[in-house]
Write a structure and sequence with these properties.
alpha/beta, Aminopeptidase, Alpha-Beta Plaits, 2 domains, eight-stranded mixed sheet, four-stranded antiparallel sheet
């Protein structure tokens, strides 16, 4: 079976590269993946794989092995792109100005299509059912995963496990990475408005300076992490946007701050929210102003179920060789795959796409991000092998 999968992965490699380049050239933002969804549905239809639509643009296919079994596994790929202007000069560069597949979701979708093709060719030889989850809107709150779960993606039939992969340019092509247990952080968006009384910069005594108040708030809030969090628990608090729309000699009436808070514990996450809000409002009041501190709750932390992850890692070692499977550290980025991991046994691993000679070491979410397409040889066959091994074949 393993050799059959590898042969099929090689046979379909050029097609999968074409799928990836097509999707990359036609990126679509979160919840707007209409063309991508149609492209995926056309391929599934051609291969005789039944599917249904979910979360507006999501697609859920089903491949049933012809040998009777109640075992079910779900495989997930996300489809959306980012609002980034692509800087790569490739034949498949984005044709949608200001929109780019800078996080590899084109790779994930095309890879799962390749996996679907392999599995459809082998269904007479395996037992169990594979659910193909092409998910929209990983990049935008509330996240497509949360919507698909509400619409029943983990029911009828109910998978015993959810497995996903994600590109990683820091890992060499041909390798994959795993971490068991807590892996990725929760993420919350912070929107803060500091209000004061504007006026002439030469008469600060007649004003209540929201710029100064906001500065104190930004600095003080860092002690939420340094003095309130358990030092053994990773936490990140960062402000990346400050708008004080005054001038060299004009103190504005208000300042707006935007930032992010990330951690790996839900109890501490809730307490940190309370402390940040209390501290910011208290500082503003003590300096004569006021503060509106709003928190948009994002994705929870992502946890890889230990037994499942160990089994999936063993499959990867068997398929790729032990030297091509590496350990991962905690990653403070966030992923809406975390929603699946909170409600069912899940494993989220990393697919190496880095190649210095091909210039594919740029980080995700950057205008120069690209992949070594040889990684598509790994991504399609490995996921098919993992699925069939998990089902007991």
């Amino acid at each position: 079976m393993k050799q059959k999968i590898k042969d099929l992965a090689n046979d379909i490699f050029e097609l999968v590269v074409g799928y990836r380049q097509h999707i990359h050239a036609h990126p679509e933002l979160s919840f707007k993946e209409f063309e991508t969804s149609t492209f995926i549905k056309d391929k599934l239809t051609a291969w005789g794989i039944p599917f249904k639509e979910m979360a507006n643009t999501g697609v859920v296919g089903l491949i049933q092995g012809e040998i009777p079994s109640e075992q079910i596994v779900a495989l997930r790929a996300d489809m959306d792109a980012l609002p980034i202007h692509e800087a790569n000069d490739k034949s498949y560069r984005s044709q949608n100005d200001g929109v780019m597949h800078a996080c590899g979701h084109d790779v994930h979708s095309s890879s799962l299509l390749g996996t679907a093709y392999i599995l459809s060719k082998l269904k007479a030889e395996f037992a169990g059912t594979i659910k193909l989850v092409f998910q929209p809107a990983e990049e935008l709150l509330p996240g497509g995963a949360s919507i698909m779960i509400k619409e029943g993606v983990l029911e009828n039939p109910k998978p015993q496990a959810m497995i996903g992969q994600h590109v990683m340019p820091l890992i060499e092509t041909g390798k994959v990475g795993f971490r068991s247990g807590i892996y990725m952080a929760s993420t919350d968006e912070l929107y803060v408005t500091v209000k004061g009384k504007g006026g002439h910069g030469a008469q600060p005594h007649q004003n209540i300076d929201p710029v100064l108040i906001a500065s104190h708030i930004i600095v003080a809030l860092q002690q939420i992490v340094s003095r309130n969090a358990d030092p053994r628990l990773p936490s990140v608090l960062s402000f990346g946007k400050v708008i004080a729309n005054g001038a060299t000699n004009i103190i504005p009436n208000e300042v707006k701050l935007e930032g992010t808070f990330r951690t790996l514990n839900e109890d501490w996450r809730k307490e940190a929210h309370r402390l940040m809000k209390k501290m910011a409002e208290g500082i503003a009041e003590s300096m004569g102003g006021s503060c509106e501190f709003n928190i948009m709750h994002g994705y929870p932390f992502l946890i890889n179920e230990e037994k499942l992850t160990a089994n999936v890692r063993t499959c990867a070692e068997d398929y790729l060789g032990t030297d091509n499977v590496i350990d991962l550290d905690i990653w403070m980025a966030a992923e809406d795959f975390a929603y699946y991991s909170q409600v069912t046994d899940s494993c989220f691993y990393r697919l190496g796409t880095g190649n210095a000679e091909k210039g594919t070491l740029y980080s995700v979410h950057t205008p120069h991000f690209d992949i070594d397409e040889d990684a598509l040889k790994t991504s399609t066959g490995l996921m098919a092998y993992i699925a069939l091994k998990h089902l007991g074949n």
